[in-house]
Write a structure and sequence with these properties.
The protein is of the alpha/beta class and 287 residues long. It has one domain: Alpha/Beta hydrolase fold, catalytic domain (Rossmann fold), CATH 3.40.50.1820. It is 29% helix and 21% strand. It is built from seven helices and eight strands. The protein has an eight-stranded mixed sheet with strand order 1-2-4-3-5-6-7-8, sandwiched between helices. The longest helix is centred in the middle third of the chain and has 17 residues. It is globular and about 45 Å long. The two termini are 23 Å apart. The N terminus is likely disordered.
Length: 287
């Protein structure tokens, strides 16, 4: 766990005896949430090297999706943290969008050990049986392994490293920014800043806000019933009191999941403005 900071007293669990539940990524979109009426955004792979890869990790391999400009070369690296629904077509398309702009984008399937998200349709069961059982230390170790893989592949310049994520992945973006000093810029999309803790998930984003190693942009919905705006601003205030660079943007009428173009929660104007802000944030801080 070289470079992993801020998770005091947390240790990697022993390798899973039952192996990995998900050996490959799911095809298509998650079945665990409603889909919108409009066709979701589709980004083709013309001019890209894109597809599923296997990432060596401490106890085996996890599947991931990677996309980069074709033709070789080490590009700035953006690590994409998935939602609770897995690395499905929406997350893959997000990686392709970034690759079209000159990035190498990698989205690891962090929950491969715990459940087959392609077959799970009960959101409560996903949270109870998968998300709540995923140790933060394992996630951060897998993140470091994925960055190392991207560097060794020749497709990414690991010195220009950014992270972004959606929903639970937004929370994990805060976590990564606070525990991995290699990250240069972070953008969290409606990531929870509070919530329950446990022995394997010992700290919230707010707990870690004062430990950020890089500038963080948070994109939140004012109509998100699960993430109080006041709580987000409290995390922002804690970070700023510690001398950290944090900017929070709230879209007053946007609900949770406003970037998820495959769901009824999608809000085009907020999603596009947030995407522009994300790219500008990466550029401003050297990624």
């Amino acid at each position: 766990m070289d470079g992993l900071l801020g998770l005091d007293g947390l240790h990697l669990p022993p390798p899973a005896r039952r192996g990995f539940v998900m050996g490959t990524l799911m095809a298509g979109f998650t079945m665990a949430t409603a889909h919108g009426q409009a066709a979701p955004i589709h980004t083709d792979s013309t001019g890209l090297t894109a597809g599923e890869v296997q990432i060596p990790v401490a106890d085996g391999h996890i599947p991931a999706y990677a996309a980069s400009p074709a033709g070789g070369g080490a590009h700035p690296l953006v690590m994409v943290h998935e939602e609770i629904f897995g690395v499905h077509e929406y997350i893959k398309d997000t990686c392709r969008r970034l690759a079209k702009l000159g990035y190498t984008a990698v989205a690891p399937e962090y929950y491969a050990r715990l459940g087959d998200l392609s077959k799970m349709t009960d959101v409560g069961a996903i949270i109870r049986d998968v998300i709540s059982k995923a140790p933060d230390a394992t996630l951060m170790s897998d993140f470091a392994s994925a960055v190392a893989w991207a560097r060794s592949s020749g497709r990414a310049d690991g010195t220009r490293l950014a992270v972004t994520g959606f929903c639970r992945g937004g929370r994990n973006t805060w976590l990564t920014a606070a525990t991995n000093p290699q990250v240069k810029a972070a953008v969290a999309w409606y990531g929870p800043v509070g919530g329950p803790t446990s022995d394997i998930q010992p700290k919230t984003a707010t707990d870690l806000a004062g430990d950020l190693h890089c500038p963080l942009l948070g994109l939140y919905g004012g109509a998100d019933t699960g993430i109080p705006v006041d709580a987000v601003h409290a995390a922002e205030a804690k970070a700023k009191a510690a001398g950290k660079t944090v900017e929070i943007v709230v879209y007053p009428d946007a609900p949770h999941g406003f970037h998820a173009d495959y769901r009824p929660s999608y809000r085009k104007e907020a999603a596009e403005d947030g995407w522009r802000r994300m790219l500008a944030w990466f550029k401003q801080y050297g990624v």
